[in-house]
Amino acid sequence: MTLLRIDGSEYPQNKQDVRLRELAPRDELSDIIREATQSVENQLAIEDAGWINLSGQTGEVITSAERITNLKLSRLYAVKDPLGKQSIRLWTDYTFGTGMVWSVPDAEKEGKATNDVLQAFWNAPENKPVLSPRGQRKSSDKLLIDGEIYFAIFLGPNGKTTIRYIDPLEITEIITDQDDKEKVLYYKRAWSTPQGKLETTIYRSSTNIKGEPGIDSAGASVQKNDEALVYHLTYNTTTQRGNPLLLPALDWIKQYRRFLSSRIAVMLALARFAWRTKVDGGAAAVEAIKAVTEGKTPNAGSTIVENLGSDTTPIKTESGASAAYRDGKMIQHQVFATVGIPEQYFGDISTGNLATAKTVELPMLKMFESYQAIWDGAYQDIDEIVLAHNNIPPSKWYVDRDFPSIDAYDVASFAKAIMDTVATFPEFANSPEVMQVALMNLGIDDPAEVIAAMEEELEKNPPAPATEANILKAVKLLREAIRNKEL
Fold it and tell me: Which is more confidently placed, 167 or 272?
């Protein structure tokens, strides 16, 4: 749509706004079909406007305006497009599942202070929107869709800590040490209140707790004016700002939507005329037949009665579905390659079997393990900020974190490995870490709570000395639990 001034002249249009408007998915089918007939050259012209001349440039390959456009498109496709939504859902499902759990070694003795501080932080009602299993999934979605996530950490009195999100679109500048670009000092934020008032503030980086002064892009001296610390986690990038997981696939997703829209347009066109009637006679005879049948839809199984002057036969149409299926696959594969997930995970199970699943799932396993490691490190960094705020010495900062098993086929083999290990090293059976991992693989939602209840029960009713009968009974119960889980 072209905006006009009062005098009839056109407003100048921002290139990024044009690209966002052109690439954004539509809800109305008619708009999609009409869009499918637009000039390809127009799309290419818009894309050419976004290219950057790399000669003589260093640093960011994608401009700030392009980054914002990509982020908005990623948010749209992650919600409205089936391929985009399934990609984000699979990444988060495989990585977090029912949620990451953690434990502190020797939580009742040497690790009690550490455990008490982290329990208060992770279980605080105000922090559950970010740290609960639901919050962990939300954090993962934000990182994958936006390419970066900003946690605002508020260090309150008496060791209390609150954590919140900051929208990446509100972070306008990252201020670093002039001699060390990897050393981030401050983050500038600008946002509008619900009343429309523009607010700005500056946060310290989580690595600049003491507030070392810095200099912004305008050459002005910068110091904190907000008490929050910002922890910044990026993904899919080699620079300061992150990029969405879907970034390389955004244009391909758009073209696939256009491709399907074109197919719909073809099918609708072919469906307009289903029957052909030959009339023996002139224009008057043709008009007479049209007057009887035009604009009327006969019921299924109806009989058409004709004389020898007309002959009605069905129109045979070739939709080219087989060729279109192959063409669509070529476009889809660009999306699959971007997110690292094979096509059978996007609804077409005919392309996969057990043999291919075992070969293609190893790269997926490594990919999601790497993503789990990123979050393991992020949560460790955040916990250390909380522990330091509560004066816990660094020697007691270790926390054991366990993510849900990625491979769905290893439940039985994992249980057998535990039984074989315990048979050789009986002391492993009393290890909270071993019990926590075993319960997670059996599908227990809150292993820490189950272990605590087990320990409390053992204190009240100490077990009898281990006998062969007791061991066989325990193995039988574990096998039954695994079998029920698989069913």
Answer: 167
Residue 6, pLDDT score: 46
Helix or strand holding residue 381 (H, E): helix 354-389
Residue 194, domain member (yes or no) = no
Residue 78 parent element (H or E): helix 64-80
Domain that holds residue 478: 410-487
Whether 69 shows a pLDDT value over 80: the answer reads yes
- Are 255 and 267 within 8 A, CB to CB? no
In-domain check, residue 241: yes
State if pTM tops 0.85. no
Please, are residues 205 and 232 in contact by the beta-carbon 8 Å criterion? Answer: yes
Cβ contact 442:453 at 8 Å:
no
414 and 381 together in one domain: no
- CA dist 310 to 280, 283, 295, 297, Å? 6, 13, 19, 19
Q: What is the largest CA-CA distance in the chain?
A: 105
Between strands 214-215 and 101-103, the pairing is: unpaired
Average pLDDT over residues 82-91: 95
CA-CA distance, 24 to 40, in Å (whole number)?
Answer: 16
CA distance 260 to 325: 10
Is there a single domain that holds both residue 119 and residue 83?
yes
Burial 251-268 (b: 16+ CB within 10 A, else e): ebbbebbbbebbbebbee
Share of the chain above pLDDT 70, in %: 65
Are 249 and 380 in a shared domain? yes
In this structure, the answer to whether residues 362 and 416 fall within a common structural domain is no
Q: Is 344 exposed, middle or buried (0-12, 13-18, 19+ CB in 10 A)?
A: middle
Cβ burial 216-250 (10 Å sphere, 16+ → b, else e): beeeeebebeeebbbbbbbbbbeebbbbbbbbebb
Number of domains in the chain: 2
Model pLDDT, residue 428: 66
What mean pLDDT is reported for the chain? 79
As a whole number of angstroms, the distance between CA 319 and CA 480 comes to 53
Which tens digits make up the pLDDT trace of 128-181?
999 999 999 999 999 999 999 999 999 999 889 999 999 999 999 999 998 898
Q: Report the relative pairing of strands 198-205 and 229-234 from DSSP bridges.
A: parallel
Q: Tell me how crowded residue 409 is: count the other CB atoms within 10 A of its CB.
A: 12
- Residue 399 shares a structural domain with residue 266: yes
pLDDT reported for residue 276:
73
Cα(229)–Cα(163) distance, integer angstroms: 9
Beta bridge mates, 173: 188
